[in-house]
Records
---
Amino acid sequence: MVIRVKNLVKRYGNLVALDHLSLDVKEGEIFGLLGPNGSGKTTAINCILSLLKFDKGDIEVFNKPMTPESYDTKRDIGIVMQNVAVYKELTVYENIDYFCGLYVPDKVKRKQLVDEAIQFVGLEDYVKFQPKKLSGGLLRRLNIACGIAHKPKLIILDEPTVAVDPQSRNKILEGILELNRQGATIVYTSHYMEEVEQICSRILIIDKGKAIASGTKEELKNMITIGEKITLQTYGLTPEQISAAGNLPNVLSAEYNGSNLVIKSTKGKNNLESVLDFAKQEGIQFGTIYSELPTLNDVFLEITGKELRD
Amino acid sequence: MQVFKLCLKIIKDNIPTLMIYVVVFLGVSILATSSMSNESKEMASFTPTKTDIAFISDETGPLVDGLKEELSKVANFVEIERDTEALQDALYFRRVTYALYIPNGFTERFMGGEDVKIQKTTIPESYSSAYVDISVEKYFDLARLYLTNVENIAEEELVSKVLKDLSVTTNVELYDTRANKADTSYANFYFNYLSYSMLGVLVMGMSALMVVFSDKDIKRRNACSPISTSRINMQFILANLTFAMVTWFIMVGFCIMFNFKNSLTPATLYFVLNSFIFMICGTSLSYLIGTAVTNQEALSAVCNVVTLGPSFISGVFVPQELISQSVLRIASFTPSYWYVKANNEIAGLTSFGFEQLESVFSSILIQLGFAVAMFAVALVVAKRKRYA
Ligand SMILES: Nc1ncnc2c1ncn2[C@@H]1O[C@H](COP(=O)(O)OP(=O)(O)O)[C@@H](O)[C@H]1O
Ligand SMILES: [Mg+2]
């Protein structure tokens, strides 16, 4: 086990930021920590790294208890903080060299690692730039390069794509997959479910410091009753028609907002067919009709009763 | 040594700002030198001048003539009419500073062993009349000595013996204690003032570092690395110390360069030693401020208070003699006070045995004590703040 957290409790005064949080990260996986802003992701990461004192719980990294003095363990960890932590006095190259140098004293070896990292995040054209001259996306990429240049076995990235343009975001996500292919175990926190769904092999959803669900994205979606979401674009439905739609087989709910009828049903083979039959039978004219599988947002919504993205 | 190298780079980036301090400091000390060298020229040009006196005698003879001869070494004789009014006028208008009157029968009574005094009138508080007094007293004291010890001595013999003795004994040269040793007043001023400017530069350099390293995100990021906090701190301290030593070396080097002719003395050695210890003290202090004060605005305020305050009350800008005892007592809780005190003592020394230097050494030891104490406090504070 790369990381094992058991019953972690962290309080800020009266606020319980982490409430008996447990998690396991296995070697070679991309572990996603998904939760809305303020759910405790950063707090959890800071506790795992021994940057914060916590009230209760056990934390092991590489099967050893983690303490502020676990320098050998720290050597194998790469960290990309949520807040960009680079020196504005140093250039892009010097920054990466500085942070890499904290792990790799050997100059020759380090030069090669730094060059690789620059190439990896695509900052070749900016090596002599000072951080203040970089755009938000490039700055994030520099932050990542500083965290991963020493080729650690475990890489922790805390919301590395916040306030990043789509191009940089895709580059970052691809990069993370590449690092994982090269053998690194990844812990990735985000409040963007699409990202987590896109790259993570296992996901833990947290809310208000509590773990609410974990598993692969398929497992998570199987946990909830909704299996399919069918949207019908149409106008002028009567209340009777809406309630009739809600009584179709497998259907859990039918909601109408004046232009779209959203029917949520459990998993089943013929859900779309029965909705189409219903429309024909009732003589409902519709523009488009489409079926979606549930997202992690639906998972979050069903468990917590609120949207993930707010 | 990543942190160490980074610190030096940050300081290098800040050299232009730091140079302002150094340049202003050197400017002020050069101005001070030129005014001081004028002062010492005046001092060297002082020569005693003969004073004008009125010598009035009702009788003549070897004893009186001998006195007149002796007095001619320290005085010019001015002819004054023998009446009281003319004498008063002469004294009042400073034509003479001293009037001496020998009445009839003086010699006879003196030779007879009587305790007779010559009569004199002087203007008050005159240095030159004191010289005359001394000469007169010496002459008669010596004469009385021969009179009582040599039986039946003749007046002529007595006078010749007295004059001969006086020509030897009065030939005492007045050594100017300063004439024999190098002028330390410039070095004294320079090194005292150094306590302000060096502290200023040290504290400024340190603040530049603190601005970077007290950043919370940077601190956390560094704490994730396999370099221990104490090693990071050590590199940080080492960088501070390197910077302090270079600053010290440059500033002291300038002093010796400007004042080279007066620098080849033991006093210079002790000035340099004292300033070195003070530099350690300053490094310790700036490290303490840097660890204790993390708020940026508070930091610059604290820096000003810490550099200017002690300098004012410890006698850097105003001599310690002019500062009231109670203020000095407060000042003695700052290293600056002991540094300045040691400098002043060194400047006043003419010989450099252990006895003379004892007080200087104890001032230096007290400064070292301050350095150690402040450093220890800084370490405690740093440790406490680790989990900030
Ligand atoms: N230093 C702190 N002092 C007090 N409360 C804090 C502190 N840091 C975080 N919190 C609170 O703890 C909760 C979790 O914060 P955080 O771990 O940053 O969430 P996330 O990273 O998931 O957005 C939030 O409610 C936040 O306001
Ligand atoms: Mg966060």
Note: Residues A 12, 15, 17, 35, 37-43 surround adenosine-5'-diphosphate (ligand 1) (CB under 6 Å).
---
Amino acid sequence: MSKSLGRRDFLKGAAAVAAGGAAAIPAVAAAWTQEAAPATPVLGPGPVPFTLRVNGKDHAVNLEPRATLLDALRGPLGLTGPKEVCDRGACGACAVLLDGVPASSCMVLALDAEGREITTVEGLAGPDGKPHPLQEAFVREDALQCGFCTPGMVTSCAGLLRRNPDPTAEEVRDALSGNLCRCGTYPRIVKACRSAAAAMKGGR
Amino acid sequence: MKPFSYARPASREEAVRLLSPTARPKGGGYDLLDLAKNGVSTPGTMVSLAAVPEMGKAWTGDHGETYLGGRMTLADLATLPAVRAACPVVADAAAEAATPLVRATATLAGNLLQRPRCTYFRDPFFECRKRGGAACPAMEGDHAEGAILGNRLCCAVHPSNLAAALLAAGAELRILTGVDGKGEPTWRTAAVDPAFFVAPEEDPLREARIGPGELVFDAVVPPCPSSAYVEVNQKASFDWASAAAAVVLEMDGGKVARARVALGAAAPVPLLSEAAAAALAGKAPGAKAAEAAAEAAVAGATPLRDNAHRVQHLRVCVKRAVLLAAGRGR
Ligand SMILES: Cc1cc2nc3c(=O)[nH]c(=O)nc-3n(C[C@H](O)[C@H](O)[C@H](O)COP(=O)(O)OP(=O)(O)OC[C@H]3O[C@@H](n4cnc5c(N)ncnc54)[C@H](O)[C@@H]3O)c2cc1C
Ligand code: FES
Ligand code: FES
């Protein structure tokens, strides 16, 4: 029982309740007004040239569609801050910021990160190379043992402080619940995150 | 992962046009990539929905219903105040799922349509009915996290938090089926009810009744302010549910006029417990009625050698979800 679906029927009476701010009824896609929409290219399975914007710079890459963002970062881009541990989205060692929000780069296709602002732990330091207040706080609070989880921890903390500059310990624990530390340094990580928040409020 | 192709259409018509039995829609890709990395299944083409504009948003309709776009992230479902107010059962279920890193990119439709998490299913080394095998090795092997209901042929539990929530809420999916001669999408609706899910007895190879060329555009959720989703986990955060209950109450004064009680992580498909709903109808939703509903929900349980604890977990979830739902929307 397939019906034809007009755009107006489809969204009639519907008002945007949120998500992404402004937005009333979505703009009419080209396909609605033209005879036939320009066909979307199907890329691959061989290497595909595209651009990734990482730590404020555009990088040309040539990768198969099956390459994950983590593959791209650690391989051709030589950014080994994000770590590969579980490779299944279960540990947070590979966390990067995607448009400012922490995500597991092992479960994101590199092609899906095209056009997005990618920040790795390498990109958190200031332009002069001065460590980010979070990085300083991790050192100050001795918030690591082996350090393998640390880039992901710092990145998740950075994402948290962007949306919540003054988190409670509970909020830090919640934001870090996808980051595992085998060495068990959690209490110090929570302390470091809040210490960095305090330092950043103080204008550092 | 085996090689595959990739497309990123910019409209829903283009997206549905690209789908085929081998070209699969990709939301967050959490399940598709996991299955591909484990060598269980790899589509020929992944059709990323990331650029389809309308599917990432929520809308409110004329009658208070909420339209939840098929690629809304679990993070948005968990945090948007309008979703929480209109259908808290959905917001709870999204908030309880996985971790912040997962919720940032995993999507509504992908969560609903994810495959089971049973270790044996996810490891091609083992025979598994869900991969066409003749036996379920979990029956004799590790089934501590297995089903306690409907577990005769296969004891993998349905993994999706949102499936239980949408089932309790009586949501309806709007599914795009193709594009007609004028370039307009054709569609059908599918209620998220017990008939939407496919039990192993009918077909072990799938869990949901949706065709390979079909695209879940959105889920329409009737207003259900007195609702809640509660799960019990072994770990306080991060963990998969050991049991889950989604409860929607329609109140009439101080009494329950009608209830829908969905059980998650209990059977190979999410279950709607008529018996639990009947135990609540006409009653004040206090501790006594909640306990009666919990007892009714687990009445037919057939726990396996190592998972009887999940019966008690399910009882606790139903009771808590009833009490939480009763305190809301009044
Ligand atoms: C550490 C960890 C913990 C987790 N814990 C939980 C948990 O507690 N509860 C829980 O529910 N889940 C949990 N998950 C699973 C996770 O939530 C799912 O894998 C995720 O939600 C899938 O969504 P996705 O958008 O990434 O799906 P995808 O992988 O993109 O898609 C999954 C399936 O849906 C299909 N699909 C996607 N979008 C559409 C559409 N619009 N129309 C038609 N078909 C579509 C795809 O083709 C595919 O078959 C966990 C995962 C991890 C890694
Ligand atoms: S390596 Fe990506 S989450 Fe573990
Ligand atoms: S410091 Fe070793 S894993 Fe966290």
Note: The radius of gyration of chain B is 19 Å.
